[in-house]
Write a structure and sequence with these properties.
Largest sheet: 5 strands, mixed
Strand order of the largest sheet: 11-10-5-12-13
Structural class: alpha+beta
Order of helices and strands: EHHHEEEEEEEEEHEHEHHEH
Shape: elongated
Distance between the termini: 51 Å
Number of helices: 8
Number of strands: 13
Strand content: 25-35%
């Protein structure tokens, strides 16, 4: 099984928890030697610091892939196995991530020519609410809009998308946000070949588009 990283900001998050864990461990050492009767407090702080530095790494560096007709991934560090037959739709949108002090922000990368590209995400769903796709511009918004129908979400690797699309166990629809489609159109067109199972959606509500169409 070819594996792909599930999340984007791996190194900064790994460093953050490593440093935070080291701070607690250092406080534990300080308490151990500087406080009278601080042995128990020191041991607790040191243990907490080590756990804080080590445990989040499994989730930060989580990987996913397809094997045996299932998507293998993690949710909060716990391994999950999602049968492709349960995936009724896949939404490809903007990958946003939580940035400390800034809230959720779209992830971006620099191309070799200096241009900036928005990182795409894929959200696997039991079913999609087509009337509310205009709200699904980002990974977080897609999860909120389809609460209860979300199976998994991850950083999109186009090799994974190709695996998913060509796997006979997957019979669902693919919905691509207009913004991401415009940015990566050659890759999408080459893979999907104009299939009727692929839909490009925008930020205009479906009801408004239908009313405008009826008025013409």
């Amino acid at each position: 099984m070819k594996k792909y990283f599930q999340y984007h900001r791996r190194t900064p998050n790994a460093v953050f928890f490593g440093v935070l864990g080291a701070v607690f461990a250092a406080l534990g050492v300080l308490a151990f030697w500087a406080l009278e009767g601080g042995t128990a407090v020191g041991i607790v702080l040191i243990a907490f610091g080590v756990l804080l530095a080590v445990l989040p790494q499994a989730a930060i560096f989580a990987r996913y892939g397809i094997r045996g007709g299932c998507v293998r991934c993690q949710k909060r560090g716990v391994p999950r196995r999602i049968p492709l037959g349960d995936v009724g739709a896949a939404a490809v949108c903007v990958y946003d991530e939580y940035r400390r002090w800034k809230g959720f922000r779209p992830a971006e990368v620099q191309g070799s020519g200096g241009q900036t590209f928005t990182v795409p995400a894929i959200v696997l769903l039991r079913a999609v609410k087509e009337d509310e796709l205009d709200l699904c511009d980002t990974r977080t918004n897609t999860r909120l809009t389809h609460r209860g129908a979300v199976l998994a979400d991850m950083l999109l690797d186009f090799s994974f998308l190709e695996e998913l699309w060509k796997d006979e166990a997957f019979a669902g629809e693919v919905y691509v946000s207009e913004y991401i489609y415009a940015m990566y159109r050659p890759a999408f067109d080459e893979l999907f070949q104009g299939s009727g199972r692929v839909h490009v959606y925008d930020r205009i509500p479906k009801a408004f588009k239908e009313a405008r169409k009826a008025a013409k």
